[in-house]
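Problem 3 from the worked examples.
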Amino acid sequence: MGLKIFVVVVVVGLVAAAQISLASTVPAFLWSPGFSSIELKEYVNYQIMSPKDLANSVLSQGGWSHLLCTGRKHEHPVDLAIVFVGRELHSSDVAGNKHVDPALVDLLKVSFTRSNFSMAFPYVVPSDEETMENLLVSGFKEACGHGLRVSNVAYSESCSIEGGDFQKLANLHSIHDHLVSRMEKRTTGETDLVVLCHGGFHPVKELDQPCPESEIMNEVVSSVEQSGAKYAALYVSDPFKSIHSPGHRELERFLAEGTVGSASANSTGCDEVCKIKSSLLEGVLVGIVLLLVLISGLCCMMGIDTPTRFESPQDN
């Protein structure tokens, strides 16, 4: 009986730990129609990794070391390496049935399954101190050792990347112009790196409403394919990015909490900080319950007492 209780406790603990890890991790997808490594098509790495580990895996397993690092050449050179940093998806959104943006999930699935080369990293743990894009670029530099081999590095204004004299792109129109101009000026065999972060992109007709991630990715990929460039793309989500920029978020929270009246008292909204705290509190409570169940099971096992002596059978 005690062994059964222990097994149940272990199973429940594993399920609870899996749910907590899904809530605190984000997915990443790597694909390219230009690679010919069929053996790595739809490959999934189930390890829980940091952004720096993701950068190392993209370079080593994904073959980006031949594109970004100096002194290395690839049999099938790629003109453009694109890094998309979103802020909508969690690992649970992809693994479960609920989708924050169904169009984005469908786009990622189609790109992952139809490309000649594709990899997935379902469990990436974002950092609370640095942005995802800064960790990826710095991880590329550190892993390459002798620096990046790319001829041009550009990123959108919504990205936060430290160091380097990189070109900034203001909107989708400037991104399209940059891709076209680089296609005309790029030397054969050179690879450009473009980092695009969600935020700051607005359609022409609706200036107050930002473009969804699926629309941004569709337009960028369409522009690249129309230019005839060979590309490799990496998508990784960073839903906690708003925490990295405390100025805007803290001002927003201060205004929301400092509102006088019943509106603030009756507010039921929960932002990203609230969700993180609630997930941690839920994990602590589940851990306490499981610990109590484990202690009860051990006590029951210790309370089982068997006789040390048995009477010999009597012969009739």
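Problem 4, a separate protein:
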Amino acid sequence: MSHSFSHSTSNSTTPPPPAPASGVAPEAMVWFDIDNCLYGRSSRISELMQDRIRAYFRSLGLSEEEAGELHHQYYKSYGLAIRGLVAHHQVDPLDYDTKCDASLPLESVLKPDPKLRKLLADIDRSKVRVWALTNAYKTHAHRVLDILGVADLIEHVVYCDYARPNFPCKPEVQFYREAMEISGIADPSKHYFVDDSSQNVVAAQKLGWNAVYFLEHDAEQVEGQDVEEDRWKRQSAVGDAPTIGDIHQLRQVWAPLFKQGAAGEGGGIDG
């Protein structure tokens, strides 16, 4: 199911895939973030990634303290650490990808997810197209989709093209606008989006997308990530956007987008 590689696109130049064989393309889009959205934070991939990013900072001659501070500063200012590294340290973004994202031991951390596969398969493709919208580079995005066993159910991936000078990323409005352009659907109200970042959700909302905030909660949660006070602050940041604690709750939030009679796991919705 690696054929999805032929469907990937940089977020500006490649046209969208052809319409279905019926010749009638769905008139709405469903966009899934990938990391910490299609798999749980309890995988600790975020922690593994942070370790590699800080090691990359240190390889530039920075101290551990400087690495931590700049990592946080660049993420806050640019949306991605690599954006700050390119702007201020003239690093090769593809070298960064090789040593950070591409070096993650994903195959030993993630595994095929039949429940996620059923969720994606139950979305009514006569109504919507199902694409991914990620700040990762294409190599990482497709590795995750392949390992989870859902690559054939994500029709297209719009990713951050590290090889493109000054590439945009979430939560920048340019990234969402380019995604809309690639999809060929100009009406923002026809775009449905789920992400685990409140900043990304708010940006999509402002553009007119139907955004859902995925604020995961389960028994396997990483220690320190499920503090109630912190959860309340993050949930408040997205205003009236629906907040879900389990990705399968999309069945309730986006019920009209699923096949009639499709059954699956779900639960209550926050907000």
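Solution to problem 4. The beta strands are 8-10, 28-32, 128-133, 156-159, 191-195, 210-214, 243-244. Confidence is low (pLDDT under 50) at residues 1-7, 9-14.
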